[in-house]
Amino acid sequence: MKKLVINLIKLRDFGNKQVTMHLYKFVTVLFMLTFAVQVEGQSTTVFYDNFNRSTANLFEGGEPVITWTPVTTNGAGTLTTYNNVFRIMSGIGTANTGSPGRTYMTGPLSSYHPAFNNALTENTGDITWTFNVRNFKTQLNEFALGNDNYGTAVVLAANNADLLAEGTHGYALVFLQISTTNRPNPRLVRFTNGLGANANFTNIVGPDATFYSANHYLSYKVVYSPVDDSWKLFYRFDGLTTVPATPGASFKDPAVEDEATGYYTQLGTSVVDNTYTDLEMAVCGFFYNHGNTATSANSVQQFDNFKVEVAAEAQSIDATLSDLQVSLDGTNFETLTMFNSTTKTYQYYLTKGHAIPTVSATKNDPAASDPIIVQATNLNGTQAERTATVTVTAEDNSFVEVYSIEFIETDYIFISGLGNRDGGVDGFVHNNLYFYANAAFGNNKFQGKTYTRLATNSTYSSLQLPQMTEIGTLDFYIRKNNVDVEGNIKVSYKKDDNDWTVVTDLGDENSLEFVKKSVFINQRADIALLVRIEITKNGDVVSDAGYYLDDFAYTASDIGTANSDIYIKDFKVRSIEGGIAVEAREGQVDVYTASGLLLQSARVQGMHEFKNLHPGVYFIQVLDGEQRKIVKYLMH
């Protein structure tokens, strides 16, 4: 998702003063995918029963030991073991005799390992059920009681041991044919008010019309994730004993997947269902609804190797940072302008004379290790000495992220323009600063920064700009808003409590279009300056006559007065629509992101436009022979 945010960016000059402005920019945030994902690891077997015991001992077994409760209603169904396989039979010796009925058994979830929570959604990790099923009955069509009705279910969890009672809810894998296909098609269902009728079932996953017919050995796996309440169903074909027989056909361990045993195939897709996942469940079980049209030998349902596992609590692999900050005084920390948790390497440009910056960091995941910060040691040293690093280890100890900030000293810092010169009358909305030559003004906020309109009288009005601490070039754009305007433009500065000193008298400006003005302010870098632009009235003016001022920029330089004109011609930067224009006498110009990634490069002699740039912070480097100049530019 995208959020429009306002980021206060502060560019610091040589004297460690602050030149601040607001920059609107778009920041893309990726939170559809989170780093806090589960890592495959240990799981706890909360219950397992392989039924390797005699019928006489059928109802007591498993690990942990569970007491199964058998139930037979109406008919003469039986529950037995045969060759270490659990089976339910209809009890019909002769077809079309006797009564239809339901035969099932349930086991209490309270006997499970304590790692299992009876409210499914409260478990620490995925719950996986694996088991074998073999359906001898070809026609599985209905769970309602009837002579021709047959249906089978493996109950994963239910809130009541009476699987036919109203108010009994839960989840099960049921086997029902589709139309007259005579295939015991599995489907993962949610059931309401018991297993007494097909109408009580809501399909979650399945069925598949092309599924195997009766008598096949099949393994099943059901996975429920409490993280998002999703359900998955898998199956595996383990062989067939009837013609054409499969060599070695038998029930294979359903909890094992390998080349020898075979691999599961997912049926359908992952589906979310949380209808009963927060319900306190009570039992698991096996259920068979049987009619009287087939003998027990032809309507046997076999089950084996019933296992329930709960994955260990998910450990995060998130070793990212949520914040990365820098302080130039060891006290006031500010987030890196272009910080993004996925970007690991940054370059931080600062003017000469600063102490070594201090880095602080905040981890994104509370379970991760505390950030280990190694501060830079020497701004004039090797790259390693100029670089601070932050190391974070994820909770699972297998993922480590290292962030680095290389500090680079430079002589040049550029403070970008403040607007787009769109000509709007309301300058505080349209990024244009407007004031009259004969009006009285107090303090006003423009782009969030307070610019003081100084004392006015009938002959002039002036605007006080922020403090500057280095010699350099002030650029701005100006136009009059009315043909009746007559004004004289002056730029002045003062230091401390001194009087204002006129730098230059730019004379009359009569254009109705924006015109760029450039003024070199020749003061040493250790003197803090206040700069103002003054409009002096010439003659009488109408009440709505005035000037628009826009795109203030101050380019710091360590070049003296003798070279001021050369400097202005050598290297200038300005905003254009969708990019940056660079004027250079001659040289190689490179445009970098704030993190040091080279975006565009060109050989420039005169002016060159770098297009397709997004709002943000850029570093522009000009190589002119052996001379290297760097500008930090804020584009919006």
Task: Describe what this molecule looks like in 3D.
The chain has 4 domains: 43-311, Exo-inulinase, domain 1 (Jelly Rolls, Sandwich), CATH 2.60.120.560; 331-410, Immunoglobulin-like; 411-558, Jelly Rolls, CATH 2.60.120; 568-636, Immunoglobulin-like (Sandwich). It has 636 residues and is mainly β. It is elongated. The chain is built from 3 helices and 42 strands. Strands 3, 7, 8, 10, 15, 16, 17 and 19 form an 8-stranded antiparallel sheet that branches. It has a 7-stranded antiparallel sheet with strand order 6-9-18-11-12-13-14, with no helix packed on it. The model is unreliable at 1-41, 411-459, 539-545 and 558-569 (pLDDT under 50).
SSE topology sketch:
Layout (H helix, E strand, L loop, with lengths): L1 E11 L5 E11 L14 E7 L10 E2 L4 E2 L1 E5 L4 E5 L2 E5 L11 E8 L18 E9 L15 E8 L11 E6 L10 E6 L9 E5 L10 E10 L4 E11 L24 E8 L10 E8 L10 E11 L9 E7 L5 E3 L9 E7 L6 E6 L8 E3 L8 H4 E7 L6 E11 L3 E2 L11 H4 L2 E4 L6 E4 L2 E5 L6 E9 L3 E9 L6 E9 L5 E8 L6 E7 L7 E9 L8 E11 L7 H7 E6 L2 E15 L4 E14 L4 E9 L2 E9 L1
Parallel strand pairs: 22-26
Antiparallel strand pairs: 1-2, 3-19, 4-5, 6-9, 7-8, 8-19, 9-18, 10-15, 10-19, 11-12, 11-18, 12-13, 13-14, 15-16, 16-17, 20-21, 20-23, 24-25, 25-26, 27-37, 28-37, 29-30, 30-31, 31-36, 32-35, 32-37, 33-34, 33-36, 38-39, 39-40, 39-41, 41-42
